[in-house]
Amino acid sequence: MPTPKNVIAVIMGGGRGTRLQPLTSERSKPAVPLAGKYRLVDIPISNCINSDINRIFLLTQFQTASLHRHIQNTYHFDSFGYGFVDILAAEQTDKSADWYQGTADAVRRNLQHFRSFPHEIVLILSGDQLYRMDFREILKQHVESGADVTVSSVPFPVSRVEGLGLMRVNDDLSITEFVEKPKDPAVIDSLRLSDNLEKKYKLPPGGNCLASMGIYVFNRSVLQESLDNSMTDFGKEIIPSLLGKKRLFAYVFQGYWEDIGTVRAFFEANLALAQPLPPFNFFDARDPIYTQDRFLPPSKINNCTIDYVVLGDGAIIEGSRVKHSVIGIRSFIREGCNLEDVVMMGADFYQTEDEMKSDLEKGIPHTGVGRNCWIKGAIIDKNARIGDNVKLSAEGKADGTYPHGIMVRDGVLLVPKGGIVPNGSVV
After folding, report:
1. Model's pTM, two decimal places?
2. What letter does residue 298 receive in the DSSP assignment?
3. pLDDT bucket at 212, cuts 50 / 70 / 90
4. DSSP H or E run through 226
5. What CA–CA distance (Å, rounded) separates 26 from 376?
6. What are the boundaries of each domain within the chain?
7. What are phi and psi of 328, to 5 degrees?
8. I need a labelling partner for 94 at 20 to 30 A (CA). Which of 200, 220, 336, 342 fits?
């Protein structure tokens, strides 16, 4: 079995995140708030820690300030365990002066930093997915199968594989073909799992494929060899190029997994957490999800109707109705409001009395949601200011930009970070 001392983890810090804008207009994808108090990057880091992997590199590039601050304020290891979360930002060198060109290029440029730490296996992870996995299981299979590369995968019905990398495997899970995001139905049909594997993993017969999770286990020497070229992406280029040359195997993961790559996926993944039995369980004390300890006071709810709500620390809700929503840290919802299917990310600060007085003099709302507002099907980003008597909903609206910087993306209304929506606005 691999031990923590011969495994390092590399987390991809994300590209521009254009499909998640405006949530990524001022932050990288892994720094996007999740579930009222976490950040997306807390998921892969926590999975590593819970799997006894504590040497973790985070490769970052775009809009990194809040991500770096979160990492530095959250992950501190004792000096006897040799653990760390090391941030490796894109940097200019004598050999290269441009940005990372893809996932493989990012890893290639940092091989020199990895060499300083003894290791035989490299675990490569995405920074913008929601799942809980014990990486010791995939590492165990990797060693026992004699694999050079192991690709973690999820079984998906054929009807749901659009936009995913698919692989054809033998019954021993050795990979014989890898196709990145195929669209041709005939190609997809040719990649279906065998009857034996469908029975083994108790899947509905006749219509399943293995989709890549973007999680890879490489033997150190194989990783170095596979990056000795100009290829830029693991899924599109590196993995297909190794077929027939190295021993590639799939690892089948059957737990909850969500690739949070779009506004709709982010919105639905958050709201799913408010269900009585959510598909992802943040209440698992055996494998906790870690995040920054902000030492916030408990939330305060006065004369409210609250139903199916995830509530972050330090929130204040007064005389309102909130249903099937996620309310983030330091959120303030004033009396008379009605919120349903809302992801409210909260605030980075509490306003002082002087600041609130200054707001009144300037004629701008305080942070949070003002009085008598009706909001449905929306994401309210951090530090947003929504005035009194505001009505917001994406129903019947096409994707696009609306007054006061409000946007509709994937059928979800978004109030951007720090956005100001004046009193009486209707969108």
Report:
1. 0.94
2. P
3. very high
4. helix 220-226
5. 24
6. 4-272, 300-421
7. -80, 180
8. 220
